[in-house]
Fold this sequence. Notes:
Strand content: under 5%
Amino acid sequence: RDWMKKNPQASICTEEGVSEFKAIANFRDYHGLPTFRKAIAQFMEKVRGGRARFDPH
């Protein structure tokens, strides 16, 4: 946590680093895991201040 606080741009877990998510999102192993996709989408929605929405249907 301390490292992320000192380096927010380097972590996809922060608002400053969320733009880097696309660099790892291309990794395809999670495509068959709906629960994981939903969790990631909810995380992204939270990080982006509610500006992103995910509709699984």
